[in-house]
Structures are given as structure tokens and as C-alpha cells.
Specification:
Layout (H helix, E strand, L loop, with lengths): L2 H25 L7 H17 L13 H26 L7 E22 L2 E17 L3 E7 L1 H6 L5 E8 L5 E5 L4
Antiparallel strand pairs: 1-2, 1-4, 2-3, 4-5
Helix pairs in contact: 1-3, 2-3
Length: 182
């Protein structure tokens, strides 16, 4: 592999990770089933690969067809996943703002392991920490799990009500714009 192709693959991989991370953050604010943006991403990726099957080798700059097609599939998948959720969120209609009263149905904590770096390539467990979550029931059948800070977790009671501001997104999927007290 040439140095140029390695650099382009590494930079492309980092950009894809950034876009997937942004898509996951937008998914947390959207009332949508998990498989819908994934299916949209797969369909867009399949169409993009089918339309320009042999022309994609120019972008990664590698001579291996497998590496070229996989890197382009990951890149197009990341862009389409982030693009679908981002357009739905950013294109939300201002006129469709509605305040929805939600009910806290469950409070729970998750214990996770913190790691520290011992030396290059060696990570060791360094203790435990907790994350705090609530499940809220939204009228219309939706349930959303949300991570919240400890102070809010201590104030929230199971069965309590709070209000969310929601808008209808560009593609018709509701978007949470303000979580109120949560």
C-alpha cells in the first residue's frame, strides 16, 4: 500500500467514526425504531456501490478491490446514517412544536468499569462508576431511555410527570427538542 492510501484510509475511518457517533447522538433525540435509519443507510450504501462499482477505487487509492469497496461502504453508510437523522432533526418544523407530558416509568443505574492506561497497548481496570438512567413513557406508545446526571436522578420519582417539547422532523419522525426537568 502506498503512504497516500494508508493516510486516506485512516482519515476516512476517523471521519466515519465521527459521523456514526453524531448519528448515535441524534438517535437519542429522535423517536424512531433503531432499524429504520440502519435500513436507510444500507439501502443508500447499496445504491451508491451499485451505481459506481468500478469508479470508487479512485477515492481510497488502494489496489485491492475488497479494501476499496469496504472503505467506501463504511464511508457512505456513515454519511447516510448521520445525514438521515441529521436532516430529520435539523429540518424539524417550527410550527409543529408541541408540549408532551411524559411519565417516568423506571429509574435504574448501570455500573461500568473505568480503565486506565498502564503503558502503550495495555489498559487495566481502575475501579467502577455508575451511570444514572430513567425510562419515560411518551403518549402514543413510545418509551425512551435517557441518561441523566446524579442530581436529577435523586430528584426524579417513579410515576412523576414532566413535559418534553417535541417537533415533527423533516421525515415525519418526532424529535425531542427540550427535555424539561430531565
Amino acid at each position: 500500500m502506498k503512504k497516500k492510501s494508508v493516510v486516506s484510509l485512516v482519515l476516512g475511518g476517523m471521519a466515519a467514526l465521527f459521523l456514526f457517533g453524531g448519528g448515535v447522538a441524534l438517535y437519542g433525540r429522535t423517536m424512531i425504531a433503531w432499524y429504520i435509519p440502519v435500513c436507510v443507510s444500507f439501502i443508500v450504501t447499496a445504491i451508491a456501490l451499485w451505481l459506481a462499482w468500478d469508479r470508487w477505487r479512485i477515492i481510497p487509492g488502494c489496489h485491492s478491490r475488497l479494501i476499496n469497496r469496504l472503505s467506501i461502504a463504511v464511508a457512505v453508510g456513515a454519511v447516510s446514517y448521520f445525514g438521515f437523522l441529521g436532516l430529520n432533526y435539523c429540518g424539524a418544523d417550527e410550527a409543529s412544536v408541541k408540549e408532551v407530558t411524559v411519565t417516568v416509568t423506571r429509574k435504574y443505574t448501570e455500573q461500568r468499569t473505568r480503565y486506565r492506561r498502564l503503558r502503550r497497548g495495555r489498559m487495566v481496570p481502575d475501579g467502577k462508576y455508575n451511570t444514572y438512567h430513567v425510562s419515560v413513557s411518551i403518549p402514543g406508545g413510545g418509551v425512551k431511555n435517557m441518561e441523566i446526571p446524579l442530581g436529577r436522578y435523586n430528584r426524579v420519582k417513579v410515576g412523576s410527570h414532566t413535559s418534553f417539547c417535541m417537533r415533527t422532523g423533516l421525515f415525519g419522525y418526532p424529535v425531542i427538542t427540550d427535555t424539561g426537568n430531565l
